[in-house]
Amino acid sequence: MRIWQGIVFACGVGVALIGCGGPKEEGGAAGGGARKQTLEGAVSVDGSSTVFPISQALAEEFMNENQGVNVTVAESGTGGGFKKFGRGEIDITGASRPIEPSEDETCKKNGVEYIELPVAFDGLTVVVNSKNTWAESLTVAELKKIWEPGSKINNWSQVRAGFPNKPLKLYGPGTDSGTFDYFCEAITGGKGKSRSDYTASEDDNVLVQGVAGDEGALGYFGIAYYEENKDKIRAVKIDGGEGPVEPSAETVRNGRYKPLSRPLFLYVNLKSLDKPQVKAYVDFCLAKAEKLVSQVGYVPLPSQAYEIAKKIVAEKRTGSRFMGETAKGLKIEDILAKEK
Amino acid sequence: MSIERYRKRVTARGVKDLLFTNLCFVATLIGIVLLAVLLYSVFRDGSQRLSWDFLNSFPSRFPEKAGIKSALFGSLWVVVLTGAIAVPTGIAAAIYLEEFQRRRTWLTELIQVNISNLAGVPSIVYGLLGLAVFVRWMALDRSVISGALTMALLILPMLITVSQEALKAVPDSYREGSLALGATQWQTIYRQVLPAALPGILTGVILSLSRALGETAPLILIGAVSFVRFVPEGLGSSFTVLPIQIFNWTSQPQKGFQEAAAAGIIVLLVVLLSLNATAIYLRHRASRHA
Amino acid sequence: MTQARATEDRRKARTGVDRFRRPPGPGLFLETTIRWVCFAAAAVSILTTLGIVFVLVKEAYLFFRQVSPLEFFTGTRWAPLFQPRSFGVIPLIVGTLMITVGAGLIAIPLGTLVGLYLSEYASLKVRAVVKPALEILAGIPTVVYGYFGVFFVTPLLRVFFPSVEVFNVASGAIVVGIMILPLVSSLCEDALSAVPRSLREGAYALGATKFEVGWRTVFPAALSGIMASFVLALSRAIGETMAVTLAAGMSPKLTFNPAESIQTMTAYIVQISRGDTPAGTVEYQTIFAVGVTLFAFTMAMNIVAIRLVKRFRQVYS
Question: How many Å apart are CA C275 and CA C283, to the nearest integer?
């Protein structure tokens, strides 16, 4: 019957297409002296979508130098990543917040020991429309007034005397993102403490569009999205008690931009470190992060912090130093240097 | 009734007919126009990014270097596997419900309600199910086969329903004639009923595989990654698919990624078109035979 | 011998027709095997449902031990991650219903008309082009529809209704409606085409216009297939995830205004499972509570729909 022949033919084409997948590697970096051909195997990375660009960059460079290793990076979210990490299903997870006590419990229950490594800073940037000429800077107290739960402020004139009478439209990340959690903890004083009548979106590009299209808009998201859209939106200087500070790579790195600089983490399964390719990957991350992180729009830690992190890996110091408290205000090297 | 009233009625009916014809035509036009608008906006953003390099490279943090190879092959693998699993199962289930059990027993009622119900379950719940059953319980890990099994479960209800309707539409005279000539039930189904129902079944196959191609959420839960630099090497391989890659690119801040995403959508549509074209061709041949 | 006859008689009574003629020799084995294989395939659906129920109820049970079901099902404020917390699921249900009804209002009339056009009026050539073209609409990834809704439909709506928010129900409903349109149109067209020509020819012979043939003769005869397509499309609309997540918004509030943003049950599930909430907490378990609610909802809707379809079939077949 010709129909069945036709169906078989179609399936055959499908299989043939799959078969000609072609060679594995493409576009490996030319040159690059030490081609460690001896490393082989896989490294599985998952976690926060905020940390994803960093992991992707590190994975890409690492695979350029080590053709035999396959590093895959997924984006299940910080919570989703910890869920898999806690069961020992993945080697490394990226997180935009420190591990929570309940997640630590899950790790303990499944016999997973981990090493906590801060890898970069993200500067949460408060932005306004480029036509907004009045809000050059805002204090933390003013931000709190705007964003705290039950706040009825919907006009700029209510924020500070002297601001024009223009409606205030708020944009921000969804309640389930690390960005939201961090902003609440840093500005309004507690997780989830935020008014609920703002335009929420998980996609920061959409927030950019929203702020860029609305004269009285105010929004917040990661610094990378601000940097890419400087022509459409303006960053507000934040006064954290020592005068207004502009968000930039420098001010985030040296801690002046506070309290909205948040650290991003990589958590590594201790047992996975026994695999040579994972160990090589982690070492590579700590060595190259300083350079690669700024390429993808984030802010590197002070060089000292990376040195301490390398020592933590070498000494296999497990456990979290950031769990249950926010790092606002504290210098990151100090936290790392603390014994657990 | 008088001749004038009769003539008026005929004219009235004729007018209604004309109105209705145009209404239907306009409705169809709306559908086509919407499709055209969607396609235009996608092509406008993505066409300059399309190139052999784009198809043949892997993703990268540099928008100019980013390519869609791993996603394309991942999608092909998943769709072909899903089809191979779901289509025979779906058709077999529909045959059972329509041919082997003509009288409604409590069991068939239960299965029927189940199937209708499953069609409305959000895709992400299938992701949760797939994660628990295929990835963890069956220890298939975050692989192509887990993804395909999950997607197969997702599209099965629609496939079964459409196949059932196709089988119902085959007139009983076909079956009775075949049986009267001494054929067994399976022979009747295989040689008479199925070929007659094939065009309808193929519509169902087209619609469900198209859906499988475009799904994101359940595969993310299964563990499809967002960044992988190799083409799937076997059933147990990690993978990514086109919608996930596109979704990932659209959420990146760099402008270049928006264009890459649009180009990715074009690639996805081309794959979709080829899939549809094959099935449509087969459907066309099948309906001529019937 | 008598026992075999008794079995056959029982089988006749059960299946209604003597279809299972005893084929000679090894043929019986083949027939029986195939019957069991097909049964197994159909039983997969039951296994799937059991699996889903198990996965959902396991965690939802833990949730309902901490949050009273009364508060959950009658509360009108959904704010599990805000302080103060509140777990009333009604805003999500209303949001889901608004999107589903809106999408249905768009897709069902349009889809039926298109199906009618393709089967009754269009020439074979037009049909060969338009039907596949519409099926392409069904395959466009849901995320693309979401972005289409945010970046195209909403600005367009704003031209006519400037007070429409960035995320709103109307956008979501329109976009989902477009997405399920091909489901309705393709399946309606299939159902209508399957009606035997004799029915049409009889009607034409009696002097009916094309409209009357289509609407009064063919349409009722194909009703069961058409209703099945409606149910399928609405089920898809209820379960739609990514498009509404992007276009309809993430603000679970109780409102009936289509210009405002809401959140559907599915969008909420996506938001939490891809987000940063730690697993094992009450907030995370809300996914499963909402999932169970959604499942129960579709189950109820389907039982009603099946009853309706059965009634229509009886009248016209």
Answer: 11
Domain boundary among C66, C97, C122: C66
CA distances from B265 to B47, B64, B75, B212 (A): 10, 17, 13, 15
Backbone angles phi, psi at B269, to 5 degrees: -65, -35
Q: What is the CATH number of the domain that holds C129?
A: 1.10.3720.10
What ipTM score was computed for the predicted complex, to two decimals? 0.79
For residue C288, being part of any structural domain is answered with: yes
**Closest-CA distance of chain B to residue A147, Å:** 25
In a domain, C6, yes or no: no
My answer on whether C171 and C299 are in the same domain is yes
| CATH architecture assignment, domain B53-289 | Orthogonal Bundle (1.10)
Claim to verify: residue C44 and residue C134 sit in the same structural domain: no
Q: Are strands A199-200 and A169-172 parallel, antiparallel or unpaired?
A: parallel
What pTM does this model have?
0.80
Q: What is the rounded CA–CA span in Å between residue C48 and residue C53?
A: 9
- Which of C44, C209, C265 faces B93 most closely, judged by CB atoms? C44
Task: Say whether pLDDT at B202 is over 90.
Answer: no
Exposed, middle or buried, B180 (CB in 10 Å: 0-12/13-18/19+)? exposed
> Is B58 in CB contact (< 8 Å) with chain A?
yes
**Minimal Cα distance from B233: which residue of A?**
A21
Q: Is B212 on the interface with A (CB under 8 A)?
A: no
Return the partners of chain C (3 or more C-beta pairs < 8 Å): A, B
Same domain, C93 and C184: yes
Q: Are residues C182 and C58 in the same domain?
A: no
| CA angle B238–B244–B249, rounded 5-degree value | 120
Percent of chain C whose pLDDT exceeds 90: 5
Quick check: B88 pLDDT over 90?
Answer: yes
Q: Which residues lie closer than 8 Å to B223 by C-beta, 6 or more apart?
A: A46, A74, A76, A84, B131, B135, B141, B142, B146, B238
- Same domain? For C168 and C48 the reply is no
Structural domain boundaries enclosing C58: 24-66
Q: Is B140 on the interface with C (CB under 8 A)?
A: no
Q: For tokens 């730690």, what's the residue?
A: C278
Give the other-Cβ count within 10 Å of C251's Cβ.
Answer: 23
Using one digit for the tens of pLDDT, what is the confidence trace for A208-262?
888 887 888 899 988 888 888 888 899 999 888 888 888 888 888 887 887 888 8
CA dihedral C169, C175, C177, C182 (to 10 degrees): -170
Mutate to test the interface with A, among B64, B144, B192, B226 (most CBs of A within 10 A): B226
How many Å lie between the alpha carbon of C288 and the closest alpha carbon of chain B? 9
Q: Does A154 touch chain C (CB under 8 A)?
A: no
Q: Do C135 and B200 touch (CB under 8 A)?
A: no
Alpha carbon distance C112, C97 (integer Å): 21
Task: Tell me what pLDDT residue B153 has.
Answer: 94
pLDDT category at A110 given cuts 50, 70, 90 is very high
